[in-house]
Amino acid sequence: MTEENKSNRRVLTGVVVSSKNDKTIVVRVETLIQHPLYKKFIRRHKKFMAHDPANECGMGDTVRIIEHRPLSRRKRWHLVQIMEKAV
């Protein structure tokens, strides 16, 4: 069992929108929600700051992040893997 399977931490997938900070990436995660009355699906997005210890991510990469203990004021996520590198 891996660390992410045995815990109840949230795992999200998103796109890196900024990697300018040292050991930090900003990941934009999109979700689809259904409107309660009209039943139309609406895209919602939120940005998360995640820890990237090796500075290996670049803008446009698709990554998977996991919930983690607080590392700074806004950084509570950790990079798990890079799923797809940007061209």
Q: How many strand elements? A: 5
CATH superfamily: Nucleic acid-binding proteins
Distance between the termini: 33 Å
What would the CATH topology be?
OB fold (Dihydrolipoamide Acetyltransferase, E2P)
Helix content: under 10%
Protein name: Small ribosomal subunit protein uS17
Keywords: Ribonucleoprotein, Ribosomal protein, RNA-binding, rRNA-binding
Pfam families: Ribosomal_S17 (PF00366)
Function: One of the primary rRNA binding proteins, it binds specifically to the 5'-end of 16S ribosomal RNA.
Short structural description:
With 87 residues, the chain is mainly beta. The chain is built from one helix and five strands.
In terms of topology, how is this protein built?
Elements: H1 3-6, E1 11-18, E2 24-34, E3 41-51, E4 62-67, E5 75-84
Structural overview:
- Belongs to the universal ribosomal protein uS17 family.
- One of its GO terms (molecular function) is structural constituent of ribosome.
- Keywords: Ribonucleoprotein, Ribosomal protein, RNA-binding, rRNA-binding.
- One of the primary rRNA binding proteins, it binds specifically to the 5'-end of 16S ribosomal RNA.
- Part of the 30S ribosomal subunit.
- By secondary structure, the chain is mainly β.
- It has one domain: Beta Barrel (OB fold (Dihydrolipoamide Acetyltransferase, E2P)).
- It is 5% helix and 53% strand.
- The protein contains one helix and five strands.
- The chain has a five-stranded mixed barrel.
- The radius of gyration is 14 Å and the shape is globular.
- The mean pLDDT is 94.
